[in-house]
Design a protein that fits this description.
The chain is of the alpha/beta class. The protein has one domain (4-134): Nucleotidyltransferase, domain 5, CATH 3.30.420.10. It contains 4 helices and 5 strands. A 5-stranded mixed beta sheet has the order 3-2-1-4-5. It is globular, with a radius of gyration of 14 Å. The model has no long low-confidence stretch (mean pLDDT 94).
Length: 141
């Protein structure tokens, strides 16, 4: 039974704003892949794409919750210091678009109702999620 999820999220735009995509990689406590995917999200900024990646991962958790333990702990890792710091409450969210996305994050967290932890990591540690972003963008162009 899975009791720990490690979720790596990334979002990116080619141009800022520009064609954008999200990437999500999910593994268990032993770093065994559970899921991984990327998808385009239209024209967006990098920060919007980063938030939408977190929202996409939370949606994945909601859709797959029936298969997950009630003792589950969820650890998010992302390379966007801004988005991570806003989600954990270190930075204020002044931009109205990002504030609306933060409300979407909070709504999904409430639906999940399990411990969720967020951590900023260097880009070099987020290569799997980044690869899904680039794959989605490359396939859409």
């Amino acid at each position: 039974m899975v009791n720990t999820l490690h979720i790596y999220t990334d979002g990116g735009a080619r141009g800022n704003p520009g064609p954008a995509a999200i990437g999500i990689y999910v593994s268990d406590k032993d770093n065994k892949k559970i899921a991984g995917f990327g998808k385009t999200i239209g024209i967006a900024t990098n920060n919007v794409a980063e938030y939408k990646a977190v929202i996409g991962a939370l949606d994945w958790i909601i859709e797959n919750a029936k298969d997950l333990s009630k003792n589950l702990k969820i650890y998010f890792s992302m390379d966007s210091k801004l988005v991570c710091s806003q989600i954990v409450g270190l930075f204020k969210v002044k931009n109205a678009d990002l504030r609306a996305l933060l409300f979407e994050v909070r709504d999904r967290e409430a639906q999940i109702s399990l411990p969720i932890y967020y951590k900023h990591i260097p880009r070099e540690q987020n290569t799997k999620a980044d690869a899904f972003v680039n794959e989605a963008l490359d396939n859409s162009m």
